[in-house]
Amino acid sequence: MQTLHFSNRTDNNKLHIPSLGVALVLLICLASPASSCTAQEKGSLLQFLAELSRDGGLAASWRNGTDCCKWDGITCDRDKTVTAVLLSSQGLKGHISPSLGILTRLQHLDLSHNSLSGGLPLELVWSSSITILDVSFNQLNGTLDELPSSTPVRPLQVLNISSNLLTGPFPSTTWKAMENLITLNASNNSFTGQIPSEFCNSSPSFTVLDLCFNQFSGRIPPGLGSCSKLRVLKAGRNNLSGTLPDELFNANSLECLSFPKNGLQGTLEVRMKESTAKNRRENNEDAEVTSFYSGSEQTLVMMRMPQGKGDENKLKFTDILKATNNFDKENVIGCGGYGLVYKAELTDGSILAIKKLNSEMCLMEREFSAEVDALSMAQHENLVPLWGYCIQGNSRFLVYSYMENGSLDDWLHNSYDDASSFLDWPTRLKIAQGASLGLSYIHDVCNPQIVHRDIKSSNILLDKEFKAYVADFGLARLILPNQTHVSTELAGTMGYIPPEYGQSWVATLRGDMYSFGVVLLELLTGMRPVPVLSTSKELVPWVLQMRSEGKQVEVLDPTLRGTGYEEQMLKVLEAACKCVNHNQFMRPTIMEVVSCLDSIDADLQM
Q1: Pick from 120, 150, 450, 567: CA 20 to 30 A from residue 342's CA?
Q2: CB under 8 Å to 363, separation ≥6 — which residues?
Q3: How far is CA 228 from CA 153, 181, 201, 258, 524, in A?
Q4: At 428, which helix (H) or strand (E)?
Q5: Could you tell me the end-to-end alpha-carbon distance of the chain, in angstroms, rounded to an integer?
Q6: Is 58 a residue whose pLDDT tops 60?
Q7: Could you tell me which PANTHER family the record lists for this protein (predicted)?
Q8: In the prediction, which pLDDT does 99 show?
Q9: Binding residue numbers
């Protein structure tokens, strides 16, 4: 039997390439020479570390190794130079050191979803190398200073400063130096003044502008209509007045125009070019932001609408009430730490799933809306589609696709119908592959990366063809951080929680890999992670013990033995055991597991 080998790389030290094949990415990684950054780069990073009051465990990696190219969250190029610092969702607290601006080839800086405070160093904004700067979902405060008028053109393409505590007038002249800017997200702050009109004049490739949930006032500048490539323009929940300028509709590429909860007046003429509508129909693409229903007590936002769901792609909260029979318990199809899930059958016969979140746990409206908007951007064929959300008073609802075959947990552990015997090995391998691809997307493609925090068989949903979909990704971001009574739920489910979480409740990508390894063991054994009978061993230690005694075949589900697939199953078992390694640094990345499962599937097809 071929032995599977996984590299010993850390979570963040990997390529973020959404479209290349896994095999090609692995070849590139293997072909890269060993890296060793310069003393200046090492000093710059250690200065950043020194200004943190809570480092999320970085010190253990950064201070014990001389080669910073091998440190957690650091990526280097073939010239042994730091090109990326990726530290999203690491539990960091403190100030952002301007020393990171000394990294002369740093292209990607991601410090999102931490608890960083203080100002945003100007050295990072006017860096001569950074193209992607993401400090969203922190506690940064103060003003965003203007760049000097003499500043040469900067390479910055993506700037995400959303969901912070930034205040004061929004910069107006800074953007003249941003000729390469494509995306600017400054939503969910407290910026004041007027919306600048310099974006399009300075940057011909400007595509996305999100200024929602601020305190902007005045009129919408007609100059934004000169943005020939502008696709998304959002400035809801401000103090804007006047009318929408006709010039906005000169932007032929405009797909999303959103200004709710302002003081705008007049009528809005909705125009769509025939070629665009025709192209979307032929390619079966989903339209973004298809409807808004606003009232004094409730708001329903459908960010996307599944084909054929509802009348003319519009849905109101009253439709949801009717479809769930006022959220009757007979319509409950799932439950968990975040709330109940209801089956909602619409008048046209189509079905959706509505998750009603526990209201006392959720973020306030503006933070909740910002987080859901961010989550809705995660779209992959193996992720449960998030179609929209609803806010009614203190209640929060999420609208998902309905999955006909329920969850993997239902099929593996439904002893009444012996459902697990229905899942043959090819079907189980297909489920493992699909789930791994969904997890790979949120780990490797999403920016910022999403740590799932609660990978388990009940969060692997199955459609009528038994295609796997990862559910509940990112839900922890919708919950108030002070809800300590639900901390166990937010960090995982018993039997799936990695051992290192006993020392720190900071969720990590490596923690997700442990949980996914447990799911693989469930597929292989048909057993629950934690047995119902207290006299039985938990799944992970039992499998590891049996394997150490050379009894690995005996751990396989009895319904699968003797079917001719033992060799493939044992290869998956080897991968699963690497995922549940007690040493988190020895676990494979999800990209490596995807490649492994693809290789096993290829052998199966031969």
Answers
A1: 450
A2: 371, 478, 479, 480
A3: 21, 14, 10, 18, 53
A4: helix 425-440
A5: 16
A6: yes
A7: LEUCINE-RICH REPEAT-CONTAINING PROTEIN DDB_G0281931-RELATED, PHYTOSULFOKINE RECEPTOR 2-LIKE
A8: 94
A9: 356
Rounded average pLDDT over 213-241 = 86
The helix (run of H) or strand (run of E) holding residue 74 is strand 74-76
Tell me what the mean pLDDT of segment 547-560 comes to. 92
Could you say which of 3.30.300.20, 1.10.510.10, 3.40.30.10, 1.10.357.10 is the CATH number of the domain covering 408-605? 1.10.510.10
Q: Which two tokens stand for residue 11?
A: 């979570």
Residues 6+ apart with CB under 8 A from 483: 360, 361, 490
Does residue 448 have a cis bond before it (omega within 30 degrees)?
yes
Please give the pLDDT value at position 16: 38
CA distance 339 to 109: 35
Tell me which fold the domain 34-265 belongs to.
3.80.10
Mean pLDDT throughout 329-355?
A: 84
Q: Which pLDDT tens digit goes with each residue over 418-428?
A: 555 678 999 99
Q: Which residue has the higher pLDDT, 31 or 408?
A: 408
Which residues are CB-neighbours of 214 under 8 A, at least 6 positions away? Answer: 170, 186, 187, 188, 189, 190, 191, 192, 235, 237, 238
pLDDT of res. 266:
56
Tokens 């060993």 locate to 34
**What are the residue ranges spanned by the domains of the chain?**
34-265, 302-401, 408-605
Of 72, 110, 373, 454, the catalytic one is 454
Q: What is the DSSP letter of 314?
A: B
In the block, tokens 């293997």 appear at: 30
**DSSP three-state, residue 433:** helix
d(CA 555, CA 403): 30
Return the pLDDT at 468: 96
CA separation (Å) from 580 to 1, 378, 506? Answer: 21, 27, 18
CATH of domain 302-401: 3.30.200.20
Binding-site sequence positions for ATP: 356
| C-alpha–C-alpha distance, residues 394 and 358, integer Å | 9
Q: Is 251 helix (H, G, I), strand (E, B) or coil?
A: coil
Rounded distance, CA 317 to CA 309, Å? 14
Q: What is the mean pLDDT of residues 572-583?
A: 94
Euclidean distance between CA atoms 413 and 255, whole angstroms:
45
> For residue 142, is pLDDT > 90?
yes
211 phi/psi in degrees, rounded to 5: -120, 20
Q: What is the pLDDT of residues 442-488, one digit of tens each?
A: 999 887 788 888 899 999 999 999 999 999 887 766 654 544 333 33
Look up the pTM and report it. 0.56
Check if the beta carbon of residue 384 is closer than 8 Å to that of residue 461.
yes
- The pair of three-digit structure tokens given for residue 373, joined into one six-digit string: 């908007």
Return the residue matching tokens 């971001």: 477
Which is nearest to 124 in space by CA: 102, 107, 101, 140? Answer: 101
454 part of the active site: yes
Q: What is the CA radius of gyration of the chain?
A: 25
Residue type, 479: I
pLDDT at 295 over 50: no
What is the amino acid identity at position 389?
A: Y
Band (pLDDT 50/70/90 cuts) for residue 46 is very high
Tokens in use for 97?
Answer: 């050191």
